[in-house]
Each structure stands twice: as structure tokens, then as C-alpha cells.
Design goal:
This protein has 18 helices and 23 strands. By secondary structure, it is α/β, with parallel strands linked by helices. A hairpin with a 2-residue loop joins strand 22 and strand 23.
Length: 562
């Protein structure tokens, strides 16, 4: 069993978001069949219990966080547990700490939330925040992977599972009135009381429903409890066990710009965001620019009129609510933790999905051998309902649309289509293009979605035929080029996840080929019909012609003679 060590701290001063997102990474690692060890100096008892409940070993360190003693403790424990990967999440794991830890023969991940000009000594850098770029880390060595943006958001399993259970997008309320207030597990500036004091009277007058969540590390609980008693519309909830239930419930969230932002995005919840730490300023600005949130600024500058106006702008304008919800939902897909875990593991869980009796079935063995030789776990699937949880599902000649709940089992669902999407969607695109007289056939690797051939495009390539190839030869060329496209994606995973581009241009569709489409005309030359003749399948839709009241079938094969 592969073991990962996670070094992280959290308390009422620095917040608990670091611990919670490392829990998400831990859960993703456990889904891969691995074990997890948490090493912490600062950790509230309630969070230690939460970690233990998920089967995670917790080791308390008595060192100065970020010191040489800290790093040496990590190295010692890592050697003892024979870990294959180490992840560190907090602001004190700087270069001196990294140099000690990087001496280990293990993948080393450092999580940051802001631009860093200084060098890094690690294998992988993760910044999951919207608006970040690789340029934020100018001194990173070329050998390091940099995982940037919400594609790699670390979301806990309960959120991902709850969202997968819901069908489609969040339903637009006719009259949004359910408001969630949350400022993380600690709320060091007691922003919660400021918001309650401003929102309470308005909520009572407007009959809004307000639920206020106070984290287990919040030292201001008694003050908040006294304040909430003055307002009938406000319900106080402490140390909530299932935050996903509340996020699903609410129409609007008033929140800090910590990890909760990405949980809200997953459920398509519009937000009013307040910064309670300097590293949240950029996130709030980016969320506002993306149209998913209203930026209310830093907590010390909250004004009653600004907060009330922001809430009313969303609650009283359902059209705006819908736009913000769509923008939020487009930012996060819930597979970020699995992508980061895959970066630490390098041995991917891959499903090859193909129609049970399709022609591709006989061509998979070489590709399977290539993937397994590279260390990946490969499962061949002939029924989409049997697709296991994994990193990548490759759909190779799959004849039907796959439901979203099955697509959600994999971080990525990839299809290779022999056309220049969005042109040429639909059935047998290579065959139809050959019949049209084309010999340069484009291929597109894209993300499968619930609608036909409509996902983001990752890469393209071409097959060039000479004009004499028969169908079986074309199929071999198509599959080899398809394998190459898939292998390039796999080799560059998970960084390649952020490269997908939305389809653009005019779409067109090819219809399903029928046996009647193999008809030749008896009074026309073979040369004039050769492109049709060379695309027929001798067994399933053979060429035929009608002559003097009879139908004649033809087989076409290349001869070694002549």
C-alpha cells in the first residue's frame, strides 16, 4: 500500500482551510488504495477527530513550524513509513525547509496561495486559486510541475459525491431568499458578528432565511450566540458535520474567500465575498471579474449599506442570479483532488471503453500493453455501466451518449473523433469524409459530455491517406493516431487538464451509416465510385449493386498480384 505524508497546520489564528483541503487530497489518495499520515504542530482537537474518523494517522510534532527540526522530523517519519509522496500546505514551508525534505526519494508537493518570487526545491507546486498563472513563480525550475487554477481545487469527498447525486445544474429559485453565512473554521477577525449585525434586521423584515455556520475553531461562539438571539430569521449552526447539505440548500452565500469558495462554485451558488486575509484579495477580485461573486472588499471596511445592496442585487434579480450561478459552476468540476493525487502517484487508473462487438475490440491489446508497460492500471470495459472510478476513461468507438453520473466516475472522459470539431459531429466521420473525396482526415481529442461531441478540445492531429487504402487499413491508421493522441495526454497529465479549449465555429453532423449506403451504380465506372467502394465493410455493410432485377454483393480486397 502506497503511503503519502501530509504536513499541515491549522488553528483559530491561521484558519483551518489548509487542513480541510489536505483532507480532500488525503481522501483522493485513499480512493487510489493508499494510506495517509498527517503530521501537525497546530491542529484543533475537533479536526484531529475528523481526520481519525476517516482512517488517517495523525502525528503531533513538537517543533517550531517551518524550522529545520520540523523538516528533519518529516524526513524521519517519511523514511519510517516508506512514503512515496509528501505534501506540505502552509506559509512557513519555505526554501530551507524544502531543501531538507527534497532529499528524500519521494514526490514532493508544496501548496501556496499567492505569487512567490523565491526559488522552490520541490517536484510539484499547487496554487488552486482563480487568477493565478505560472508567471507567479518566476524562479521555479523547469523540472518542476506547476498546477495552477481551480482545475486543481481540492474538494472533500462529501461535496463531490453530493454534487454527483444532483441531476443537472442548480435549480434557479423563483425568489431567492436562502442565505448562508460562513467565514471558515476559525474566523480570526470575528467577521461573522459584523455580518449578523448588518444582515439581521433586514432579513427579519424581508422574511429571508439565514443560516450562520460557525467553525469548531472559532473563539467567538458565545458572542455570536447572544447576537443571533435578537433575530428570528437567523439560525446558528456550530461545527457542521455536512457542509455540502447547507451549500445545496442556499441560494446565496456570504463568505470569506477561502476553500469554501470552491465548494460554493461546485454547487453553482452566487456569492458575496469578504476578504479576511491578505492572500484572499486576489481571489475575490478574480471571482468578481469572472462574474461568480460580488467583491465587498476587506472585512475591516464592511459597511451596512454595501452589504445590504450586494445581497439585494442578487436576490431581487433572478436573471443575474442565473448568470452568477452558471459562472460559478463553470469554474470547478470536483475532480481537482484526484488530479493532484495522480500527479503524486504517476501511475494512472485508466479505463478503455468500447462497444462490445465493435471493430475496435480486436485492436486494443497493443495499446493496453503500452499503457501497462508505462505503469498504469488499465481496465477494458464493454458496458459503460461497469466503468470503475478512475483518472481517465478513454471512449474508443462507443456508440451511445454516457449519462453524467457515469462520466463523474472519472476525472476525465476522453474521445477521439475523426473530424475538425465542431464540424463533422456524429457517426463515422472518417468514412463520410473519404466518400466526399478527402484523404487528409483531422482528428480531435476532446472531453466527453452529456451532449454529443461537444466538450473541450485538448489536441488535434491528422491522418493523410494516399487514396488506395481500404477500410481495414484506414481503421488501423485511425487507431494508431488515436492512441498517440491519448498517450500524449496521459504523458502530460495532469497539467494538460487546463489546456482544453471550448469548441468554436459552425457545427455540422454526419448521420449514421446504413447498409443501403454501400450501393454502387451498375452503369458507373469503378473509378468514379472507388472512394465509396474502399470504405465498405465486407462483413457488416458490403458493397452491392442492382442489375436486371437482381442484387449482387461484392467483396473488395487488395491482391498481392499485379
Amino acid at each position: 500500500m502506497k503511503t503519502i505524508l501530509i504536513r499541515v497546520d491549522g488553528d483559530h489564528h491561521i484558519g483551518t482551510g489548509h487542513v480541510m483541503r489536505m483532507l480532500a487530497l488525503a481522501q483522493a489518495w485513499q480512493r487510489r488504495g493508499g494510506a495517509v499520515v498527517f503530521c501537525c504542530v497546530l491542529l484543533p482537537h475537533v479536526l484531529q477527530q475528523k481526520l481519525a474518523a476517516t482512517g488517517i494517522e495523525v502525528i503531533r510534532l513538537e517543533v517550531n513550524p517551518g524550522s529545520a527540526d520540523d523538516a528533519e522530523s518529516v524526513v524521519r517519519i517519511a523514511k519510517d513509513r516508506e512514503v512515496v509522496a509528501i505534501a506540505c500546505d502552509n506559509y512557513h514551508f519555505t526554501l530551507p525547509f524544502q531543501k531538507i525534505v527534497s532529499s528524500l526519494e519521494a514526490q514532493f508537493l508544496v501548496v501556496v496561495d499567492y505569487p512567490v518570487a523565491e526559488p522552490f526545491d520541490c517536484d510539484i507546486i499547487l496554487n488552486q486559486n482563480l487568477g493565478s498563472t505560472c508567471g507567479d513563480f518566476p524562479a521555479v525550475a523547469a523540472a518542476s510541475k506547476v498546477l495552477i487554477g481551480p482545475t486543481f481545487t481540492l474538494l472533500r469527498q462529501e461535496f463531490v459525491e453530493r454534487r454527483a447525486d444532483l441531476s443537472g445544474k442548480k435549480i434557479s429559485p423563483n425568489e431567492p431568499r436562502k442565505i448562508l453565512v460562513t467565514f471558515g473554521g476559525a474566523d480570526p477577525h470575528n467577521t461573522t458578528t459584523k455580518v449578523i449585525d448588518i444582515l439581521g434586521r433586514v432579513a427579519d423584515n424581508e422574511a429571508w432565511e439565514v443560516k450562520v455556520v460557525v467553525g469548531g475553531a472559532n473563539p467567538h461562539l458565545a458572542e455570536i450566540e447572544r447576537l443571533v438571539m435578537d433575530y428570528s430569521s437567523i439560525e446558528l449552526l456550530f461545527d457542521v458535520a455536512d457542509m455540502s447539505d447547507l451549500i445545496d440548500w442556499c441560494d446565496l452565500a456570504i463568505s470569506a474567500a477561502g476553500s469554501t469558495v470552491w465548494e460554493l462554485c461546485l454547487f453553482g451558488v452566487p456569492m458575496v465575498l469578504i476578504s479576511i486575509a491578505e492572500n484572499q484579495n486576489g481571489i475575490i477580485q478574480a471571482m468578481d471579474a469572472a462574474g461568480a461573486a460580488i467583491n465587498l472588499g476587506v472585512e475591516s471596511e464592511i459597511e451596512s449599506s454595501n452589504l445590504e445592496r450586494a445581497v439585494r442585487e442578487i436576490i431581487l434579480d433572478v436573471e443575474r442570479w442565473n448568470k452568477m450561478a452558471s459562472c460559478a459552476e463553470s469554474l470547478v468540476d470536483g475532480a481537482g483532488a484526484d488530479r493532484v493525487a495522480a500527479a503524486l502517484d504517476a501511475n494512472l487508473r485508466i479505463s478503455l471503453v468500447t462497444a462490445g462487438k465493435g471493430w475496435v475490440r480486436g485492436m486494443l491489446s497493443d495499446f493496453v500493453d503500452r499503457l501497462r508497460t508505462s505503469g498504469h492500471k488499465v481496465t477494458i470495459v464493454y458496458d459503460v455501466n461497469e466503468i470503475p472510478e478512475g483518472d481517465i476513461a478513454l471512449f474508443l468507438s462507443c456508440w451511445s451518449l454516457v449519462p453524467p453520473e457515469i462520466l463523474s466516475r472519472s476525472a476525465h472522459n476522453l474521445v477521439v473523433h475523426a473530424s475538425d470539431l465542431p464540424a463533422g459531429k456524429g457517426w463515422s466521420p472518417m468514412t463520410w469524409q473519404i466518400i466526399e473525396g478527402k484523404n487528409l482526415i483531422p482528428l480531435t481529442l476532446f472531453e466527453a459530455q452529456a451532449t454529443v461531441d461537444s466538450g473541450r478540445i485538448y489536441s488535434t492531429d491528422f491522418i493523410e491517406f494516399e487514396g488506395h487504402e481500404l477500410l481495414q487499413e484506414m481503421r488501423v491508421a485511425l487507431m494508431e493516431k488515436s492512441y498517440q493522441l491519448c498517450e500524449r495526454f496521459i504523458e502530460n497529465y495532469p497539467e494538460v487538464s487546463v489546456t482544453g479549449k471550448m469548441q468554436s465555429g459552425e457545427e455540422s453532423f454526419y448521420r449514421r451509416r446504413e447498409s443501403s449506403d454501400s450501393q454502387l451504380e451498375a452503369d458507373q465506372s469503378i473509378a468514379s465510385q472507388f472512394n465509396l467502394l474502399r470504405t465498405v465493410d465486407n462483413d457488416y455493410y458490403p458493397a452491392f449493386f442492382n442489375y436486371q432485377g437482381c442484387r449482387y454483393k461484392l467483396r473488395i480486397e487488395k491482391s498481392d498480384e499485379g
